[in-house]
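re: ur question from earlier - yeah i can do the single chain one, its not a big deal. heres the input i used so u can compare w yours
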Amino acid sequence: MTMTLEDRRGYNISGALPADGDVFEHILNLHLSWQCGVEADLQKLIAEAPRFTMAHVLEAYLGLCSRDVARVQRARSAVARAGELPANHRESLHVGAIRAALDDDFATFQSCLQGLLVQYPRDLLALQVTHAIDYLTGDIEAMQAHIAAVLPNWSVAVPGFHAVLAMQAFSLVEAAHYEEARDRGLHALSLMPRDARALHALVHVCEMKGDPFGGHRLMLERQIFWADSVAATHCWWHWALFHLAEGAVTDALNIYDKRLRQQQSIELADLIDSSALLWRLTLLDVDTGSRWNELANAWVSHIDDGYCTFNDMHAMVAFVGAEDWRSAARLETGLLRGRMHGTRYGETTRLIGLPVCHAILAFGKGHYARATEFLSTVPTTARRMGGSHAQRDLLYLTLMEAIRRLRRPAGRVAA
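and the output i got, formated as tokens:
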């Protein structure tokens, strides 16, 4: 027998027993804190409580908010199951939002999410998804506005407040309000020390303020809390950037070998971080040996994804780094096709993906004037591919190095 009960923020949930609600709350907290075990625990909960509507909704969102098109497509079966179950108004809005997103109806998707947050401002999952989509689309103003709009309904007395503070901290970093971001991030960690998302926001503060010493200290002091999180590889990437800022090239390469590529991960987030770090090393004329070949091979299966411009850029970086011109040409052909689609991906391909990938190709072939020309067209639109300022700095660094190489020959840095 199932019943309707309330979650810890006072909103009704359908198809669950009280014990199921407790398990869901634990899983949601893991997800919001970027801790491991979410998917395994969620599958176990769904098996034990198959009519728990929000469990299926969360499963769908886990796929939908990914840059991996295969994971996104798996969200279809999850939302189909959710749509067959009893649902209250809030849950129905979630189901409608997911269906709209999967149909590439971005306007309806945003409308459903906004409706959720207006009517249910303590819906943590709605806020998490809204925040994730703002990040994936590079909408910094919306990221700030959505958090600010719900904050009056939150306090330390409301379970999950640490996650709201962590989201706010990151939105403040992206808006260049670094001291406020630091304050919110530290507050979040005081409530939940294992909140890897809050730690990540503080790492961004150090990165954007040019404080590698502070970054080193933060990573060391908090390592026990992030080293086994789902963001561990990304945190190691940030640590490598702090090493590069101090000229410690060998340390950065060691992180690449031992933390980013030792397991030769094929997860897109890991591939992105690996491309971004190895490209930065290449821009410094560091001899990276055969590392590009392994990474480019890992990217090959994503050439035809036709889904995410941010992915395309990092895939092209890997192909150019490996001088795999055949794969680079395949990706370029796909981009030429993709720009014709009347989708958001088609739009970002036209505005950003093609000129950026053409610039990277030109740079790799030594055509620095052409690379500079292409990169000069994207600064005002680059954020629409998503990611953070720190991640998109790859474009600025490439532009600066192209200009430098136009002026004088490049030397090689010993690792």
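The radius of gyration is 22 Å. not sure if urs matches, ping me
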